[in-house]
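Sharing a chain and its predicted structure for anyone who wants a worked example. Both blocks are below, sequence first, C-alpha cells second.
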Amino acid sequence: MNRRPGLATCLRAGLGLAFLLRTRSVLALVGGAEPDPGEVIAGRVLGARHLLDAGCLLAAPDALGPVVRSVDAVHGASMLGLAAVSRSHRRVALASAVVAAVLAAPQPRATRGTG
C-alpha cells in the first residue's frame, strides 16, 4: 500500500532538518539567547532523532508509530523535569515539551472515500 506521509511526519522531518542545519538560530529563536555549546549538541542530537523518527514512520507507520510516540512522550516528560529545575533552560525545555506532546498524540489517519 502506498501511503503519503502525514502532517506529523512532515513536521518531524522539518524540525529535524532545522535543528541539524540551523541549530543555533532555532535555539536562539526559542530560547531568546545565544545557546551554549551543550545546548547546540543537544539540539543536533534532537534533530537527528526527529529525522530518524520520520524515517521510521515512513518505513513502518503501523509497527513503529507507537514506539516513536512513546519516545516523544518520554522526551516531553524529561523536558518538563528540566524546566522545573533549570531556570536558564526553562523556555527551550517548555517549548520542546509542547512539541513532544503534539507529536506524541495519536494522529488521525487520512482516509479516501470510495466515491
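Comments welcome. The chain has a mean pLDDT of 91.
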